[in-house]
Amino acid sequence: MAGRVRRDEGVLRGALVCVVGLVLLLLAGAGAAECRLENQDPRGLQEVTVERVLGFDELRLTDGRGVRLIGLAPAAPLREVMAPLRDLRLHEGLRAALEARLDETGYRLILRPGRPARDAQGRPRVHAWSDDGVLLAAGLIAAGAAMPRPGPQPEPLDACLFAAEAEARAAKQGLWLERPEALPARTLDPLDGTLRQGRLRVQGEVIAVRETPRHWVLELDGPLDLLIHNDDRDHWPNLAPESLNGEAVIARGQVYPWRDRLRMRMRHPLDLEVVE
Predict the structure, then answer these.
(1) Would you place residue 209 in the very low, low, confident or very high pLDDT band (cuts 50, 70, 90)?
(2) pTM of the full structure
(3) Which domain, by its residues, includes 67?
(4) Collapsing DSSP states into helix, strand and coil, what is residue 245?
(5) What domain count does the chain have?
(6) Is residue 4, in this structure, part of any structural domain at all?
(7) Model confidence pLDDT, tens digit, residues 94-125
């Protein structure tokens, strides 16, 4: 499993050519154009003023409504040396970045309902643009202040979020300025509850690949299975999972227990890389 990790983190060779260096840059440029406000259907757009930020992705509007911004997940704060385990309580940094961006725009936004239009708690889910036409979530992600989190149903603007992440990675912005070391999968302990309190970068060799009705499962040489859910397969159009059998990989995500092992869901090719 020894080897040098490719500089373009998260890019899988072979089956994942869709995210190889140059393509990422092209997608970032194309995505930026398609994400701008002037390229959106004006139907359903609404100008609003934000009263205050309630959380890292929740806003209270001056008309009394509360809305959730689509696409944002908290990013770990930078430290001089970053550990493999990152704290999940990362709201403060992203909230501060969101408030700073809103302050620049005078707390004025243009909203469009997402798909679905409401979350499980009934709160409106919205895409938001500032007056300069920049998709708010994509701007924060491109600055390295957040990570992309698409909604439960695929939307065209999802590509904007991942293009913004690719841009931040390439520029080593914010979250991507430093990369934590990868934790060997064989050292994981399924009984260690602290592992479920943060996001991990884990390195291991794929020793088995199987398919279930709901997942592709990549079994590592340790008590960890990497899952690619059916709902996420649109992000992996050219992946033949069997091609990863025997490969050393680095995965990024949050672990959770499953029987006597741990699992980690791979939501996008940027969360998985092959070690050269």
Answers:
(1) very high
(2) 0.59
(3) 36-177
(4) coil
(5) 2
(6) no
(7) 888 999 999 999 999 999 999 999 988 899 99
